[in-house]
Amino acid sequence: MPKKVTAQVTAQVTAQEVADAAGVSRAAVSRTLSNSGYVSAQARNKVLQAASALGYRVNHLARGLNKLRSDLVGLVVADIDNPFRSQQLKDLSEALLENQYRPLLIPTTQGRDSSQVIDMLMRYSVSGVIITSDTPPAEIYRNCIRHQVPVVLINKADQHPKVDRVLCDNAKGIALLADFFRQAQCRQVAVIATKEGSYSIQCRERLFVQQMADLGIRTSVIRAPKHDYQGGAMAALELLSMPSLPDGAFCTNDYLALGLIDQLKDKLSPSRFRKIRITGFDDIPQASWLNYQLTTIRQSTRDLAAAAVDLLKRRIDDPDLEGQTEIIDVQLVAR
Amino acid sequence: MPKKVTAQVTAQVTAQEVADAAGVSRAAVSRTLSNSGYVSAQARNKVLQAASALGYRVNHLARGLNKLRSDLVGLVVADIDNPFRSQQLKDLSEALLENQYRPLLIPTTQGRDSSQVIDMLMRYSVSGVIITSDTPPAEIYRNCIRHQVPVVLINKADQHPKVDRVLCDNAKGIALLADFFRQAQCRQVAVIATKEGSYSIQCRERLFVQQMADLGIRTSVIRAPKHDYQGGAMAALELLSMPSLPDGAFCTNDYLALGLIDQLKDKLSPSRFRKIRITGFDDIPQASWLNYQLTTIRQSTRDLAAAAVDLLKRRIDDPDLEGQTEIIDVQLVAR
DNA sequence: TTGTAAGCGTTATCAA
DNA sequence: TTGATAACGCTTACAA
């Protein structure tokens, strides 16, 4: 009599116990709870009832082991503290949860060896990976692909036939900003970029300089050491030392703009400060703060997250899909 | 001939393959790689060599299934976008990684049913849970304890004989601030708290009011609708409508202070603004920005994270430990 | 439509 | 010190 009602110490309810309670086989329980295969309505009901009565929860470790794929999704993120990134992280993790995936958070720093990251991902048989990290993620996604793990890149230049990408519409955003500077009748606009820019930063700098040239507006590029508040503040000092003060400043992201604004306000009289039109990109929460009132380009991190998870899901269902690129719409927020 | 060298499709290397290559049993491989049980130096070396040659990685799903405990740790966080929280999240996830745990990120919102959270945690046999969420986490941690899952609470009031807590030293911080206002010879200090405060907010409000009373300084409490920038801005309006303008304002956290400052600067002349001493609590990055230069109390999120993970580790090793409370030191940052 | 049984990759037990 | 072997809890052919 192979009746094995091992009363677990951990009070962990197993599919077998549910099966026993419902008077069906363990297989029927599995079929019911994973919505696969044939189950009669009657059996189904009995299972569902027994399951909820016993407080049964599918063990995802076991399921993952069996299917060779867990529903964990690696979330490779750098610079978590950075207003734009933390927004993104929030929306991404929520989008994953809504789609029955679970975010396995992997913070990366410049220093950390990327092979460790790959290791972690593989050890958990993640069913996908979303990368927003700035560090060249090539090594990471190549390895993922070797292991048949779907990858989605967010705001990255890298192209690969088997990875999907989500990009915000930098071209449209820059066009809107260029038009803004044109309407404001600016003559000379400083472009605040960074020494080692991320894809977005570089792309925006290039597009902007080009468009301004088309409009016959002069630009001069200032490269801050880092793309954050301090970087913006330092760029401001450089801007102030220019032979003639520009009447416009385009910061390749909002974070830079905040530092720039504060530094300029600190060093210039209110009237001279007001003569400089400043814009950013991203529309982080701070851009709307009273002290900044920054004109910028909004890219919805929610849409971004939704698109990323959607692409991931599609590729999980069909791993042989061609790599797609989804462009997220942007709007001008004039303040 | 039970030779089973199933060349995996996914190129997933198994312990069996390593064992075969090393000419030992699967058990020996396991013992070597988990540092448990007896293995001769010779066998050990052969295993290690074969493992690295084949690129073997322990399957943590299988390990977790077997041990009834994964090395995943639930990170229950609310309000990810919020400068202080995202710092905390960053440091926590890094601390977990350093200790060979993996953060399973679980964002919570006021609305979300906490039973879903518990579900997720249980389904993955997490070996612990760290909660920083503001929503009353009682239901979550009670369930965790029922399932023998160690819990660490960060900056939460809740007491329970089996959960550990990490708290920042609010009492010391408030004492430092009280002294600051005394030295500045303030007569009337506004206290900016919130309607439904988190533990920290409430605790700070109470302590501060009490200490100021001891020093004979008048206080009046203003409750903002939310503890964020907007909340601070709204509190400022209320402050401005007071019969006599206070000469000090203590914000129960920095985030509120930023909104307060901006709103006051906007509505008051520079000279009148300067007459009000403003302080915050937490020392978020923005506190040091040029526009704010906020005097505040620094609590190190790194220390906090380190303490939390340490407590967790200890309790995982010995689940029957009494609940401990670790207090994190704070300093005054005068700006 | 159902149940049996064979894995999934580990670790733990126990006899050798 | 070693190596079978039995779990861990689930999914899924396959047979009934």
From TrEMBL, chains A, B:
<keyword id="KW-0678">Repressor</keyword>
<dbReference type="GO" id="GO:0003677">
    <property type="term" value="F:DNA binding"/>
</dbReference>
<dbReference type="Pfam" id="PF13377">
    <property type="entry name" value="Peripla_BP_3"/>
</dbReference>
<dbReference type="InterPro" id="IPR046335">
    <property type="entry name" value="LacI/GalR-like_sensor"/>
</dbReference>
<dbReference type="InterPro" id="IPR010982">
    <property type="entry name" value="Lambda_DNA-bd_dom_sf"/>
</dbReference>
<dbReference type="InterPro" id="IPR028082">
    <property type="entry name" value="Peripla_BP_I"/>
</dbReference>
<keyword id="KW-0238">DNA-binding</keyword>
<keyword id="KW-0804">Transcription</keyword>
<dbReference type="Pfam" id="PF00356">
    <property type="entry name" value="LacI"/>
</dbReference>
<feature type="domain" description="HTH lacI-type">
    <location>
        <begin position="13"/>
        <end position="67"/>
    </location>
</feature>
<dbReference type="InterPro" id="IPR000843">
    <property type="entry name" value="HTH_LacI"/>
</dbReference>
<keyword id="KW-0805">Transcription regulation</keyword>
<protein>
    <submittedName>
        <fullName>LacI family DNA-binding transcriptional regulator</fullName>
    </submittedName>
</protein>
